[in-house]
């Protein structure tokens, strides 16, 4: 959201007037620059890249991934789905518009301005870090922000070479090493694999809370696996009263209080929370109200329905990922390609025989991975899952209306999101690439 330009405020206009010195954030004119400290990115596969440090002077381990997003670096870094990952930005310059305040907007109290309360990734790798930033909403530089959240960054490395390497061999474990650690190459056993931990438990809310309590829309429960703030904001903007529940909350004990269930995005392996998948299976079997899942929520829906989830070689991260709609449902038209934003390492397995009562909703046009699932009309259910992020800040916004579709369906119980089972011949334009191997 911080990347979207807004009308200049009155105080910002004084930047060009006689009172500029009194109204401009002093760090814009006198930026806080990091000390010249060496840093390195070491990969478990043996490669090392050397540059300069910014942000925290701590050294951190994580899983090294890359993102093709060219805007909204603040939103990417605060996305809980990046928990435990070292984020390599392919965009050549990061930090040029600084970092805004994370205070909630007046119209959406209780929801942070960025995607969570703080930086979620373990480290940041950029080609060129902009320490002198310029944006009327900025309150600090990316260096100051990372230092405050104890997140190390490295600049001055060839991110194109790193990206090419990761594209060839897949995501790999790594370490951002700062200062004296930069010259020390870790032993293989020292690398930390975040996928071995329940990352969802780390980022989920610990206690239930309610957003928009006086809303006039339906009552929607959100199982929080690490939800992005803009998902909550998108539901609230539709008038819904939103109750956010911890990842391991027994929704079935309170389900009759709600008009719909939403399963959020989140980090790591969906099989790390199998107990939640079993509860969702019970919900699907016994409850006839609408259910919608995004990213991790989509994978949990698939597992609950009897599908297999697998770890992709590369994962899909960044903007402008094309997906093909196989069914019409609400605002979605079968046969149309939608441009989406994505951030996931795991996916549902594509198979010729989907479980009874289910059908693929979207396919990725690049790798043919499953980008969505939908309940069939014969099932009597109203359930949808998408692997991509309709709410993505910075765009694209092709599928943003999915939130309105879902909320409208929760209002009526049989709304516009119901599938009409229009099938598209996915081989009409030639063979589609096979999904990435696990």
From TrEMBL:
Q: Does the keyword Zinc apply?
A: no
Domain Carbamoyl-phosphate synthase small subunit N-terminal, residue spans: 37-177
Q: Which InterPro entries match?
A: Anth_synth/Amidotransfase, CarbamoylP_synth_ssu, CarbamoylP_synth_ssu_N, CarbP_synth_ssu_N_sf, Class_I_gatase-like, CPSase_GATase1, GATASE
Q: What is its EC number?
A: 6.3.5.5
Q: Cross-referenced SMART domains, in alphabetical order?
A: CPSase_sm_chain
Q: Where is the composition biased (Polar residues)?
A: 427-438
Asked if Amino-acid biosynthesis is a keyword of the record, the answer is yes
The protein's annotated catalytic reaction(s) are:
hydrogencarbonate + L-glutamine + 2 ATP + H2O = carbamoyl phosphate + L-glutamate + 2 ADP + phosphate + 2 H(+); L-glutamine + H2O = L-glutamate + NH4(+)
Per UniProt, the enzyme's principal EC class comes to ligase
NCBIfam families in UniProt: CPSaseIIsmall (TIGR01368), PRK12838.1 (NF009475)
Family indicated by similarity? Belongs to the CarA family.
Q: Which HAMAP family match?
A: CPSase_S_chain
Kindly provide the name given to this protein in its UniProt entry: Carbamoyl phosphate synthase arginine-specific small chain
Please name the gene that encodes this protein.
CPA1_2
């Amino acid at each position: 959201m911080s990347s979207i330009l807004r009308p200049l405020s009155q105080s910002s206009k004084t930047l060009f007037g006689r009172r500029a010195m009194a109204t401009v954030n002093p760090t814009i004119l006198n930026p806080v620059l990091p000390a010249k400290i060496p840093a390195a990115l070491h990969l478990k596969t043996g490669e090392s890249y050397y540059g300069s440090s910014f942000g925290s002077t701590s050294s951190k381990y994580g899983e090294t991934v890359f993102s093709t997003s060219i805007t909204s670096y603040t939103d990417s870094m605060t996305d809980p789905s990046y928990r435990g990952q070292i984020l390599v930005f392919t965009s050549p310059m990061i930090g040029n518009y600084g970092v805004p305040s994370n205070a909630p907007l007046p119209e959406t109290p209780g929801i942070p301005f960025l995607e969570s309360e703080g930086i979620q990734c373990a480290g940041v790798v950029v080609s060129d870090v902009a320490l002198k930033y310029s944006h009327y909403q900025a309150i600090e530089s990316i260096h100051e922000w990372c230092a405050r959240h104890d997140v190390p960054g490295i600049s001055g490395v060839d991110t194109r070479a790193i990206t090419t390497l990761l594209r060839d061999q897949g995501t790999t474990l790594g370490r951002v090493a700062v200062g004296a650690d930069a010259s020390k190459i870790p032993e293989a056993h020292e690398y930390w694999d975040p996928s071995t931990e329940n990352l969802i438990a780390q980022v989920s809310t610990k206690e239930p809370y309610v957003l928009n309590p006086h809303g006039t829309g339906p009552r929607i429960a959100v199982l929080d696996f690490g939800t992005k703030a803009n998902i909550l904001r998108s539901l609230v903007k539709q008038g819904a009263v939103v109750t956010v529940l911890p990842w391991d909350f027994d929704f079935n004990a309170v389900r009759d209080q709600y008009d719909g269930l939403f399963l959020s995005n989140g980090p790591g392996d969906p099989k790390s929370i199998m107990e939640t998948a079993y509860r969702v299976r019970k919900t699907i079997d016994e409850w006839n109200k609408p259910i919608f899942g995004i990213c991790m929520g989509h994978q949990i829906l698939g597992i609950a329905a009897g599908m297999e989830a697998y770890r992709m070689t590369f994962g899909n991260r960044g903007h402008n990922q094309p997906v093909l709609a196989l069914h019409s449902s609400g605002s979605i038209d079968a046969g149309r390609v939608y441009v989406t934003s994505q951030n996931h390492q795991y996916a549902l397995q594509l198979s010729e025989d989907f479980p009874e009562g289910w059908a693929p909703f979207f396919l990725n046009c690049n790798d043919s991975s499953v980008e969505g699932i939908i309940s069939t009309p014969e099932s009597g259910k109203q359930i949808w899952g998408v692997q991509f992020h309709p709410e993505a800040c910075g765009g694209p916004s092709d599928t943003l209306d999915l939130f309105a579709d879902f909320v409208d369906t929760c209002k009526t119980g049989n709304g516009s999101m119901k599938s009409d089972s229009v099938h598209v011949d996915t081989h009409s334009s030639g063979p589609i690439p096979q999904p990435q191997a696990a």
